[in-house]
Amino acid sequence: MPKKKKDDARHLPVVECFCGEKILLIPNVKKMSLAIETHTQKHIKKLRLPKKEAELEAERVRDDLTAKVLQKACEI
Ligand SMILES: [Zn+2]
Fold first, then answer.
1. pTM of the prediction?
2. Which residue among 32, 61, 68, 69 sits deepest, i.e. has the most Cβ atoms within 10 Å of its Cβ?
3. Quick one: angle between helices 29-47 and 51-75, nearest 10?
4. What is the pLDDT of residues 27-71, one digit of tens each?
5. How far is the CA of 65 from the centre of ligand 1 (A)?
6. What are the structural domain ranges in the chain?
7. Distance 19 CA to ligand 1 centre (A)
């Protein structure tokens, strides 16, 4: 039987983008999506992609982070 580790609650839960940046998990859907959006803009700015590719990359980052957030939320 898997035991729930109480220690885990003490660590700040973060999700990591594939660019290596860590984003703090916030127990608030609105703020969390804002945090994802903020990183997405930063992420594509850093890459300096052409507009069309930047949009695709933004989509990819958003999807990836959203999936990771949901996954983390299940673990908490
Ligand atoms: Zn990123």
1. 0.80
2. 61
3. 140
4. 899 999 999 999 999 999 999 999 999 999 999 999 999 999 999
5. 9
6. 28-76
7. 4
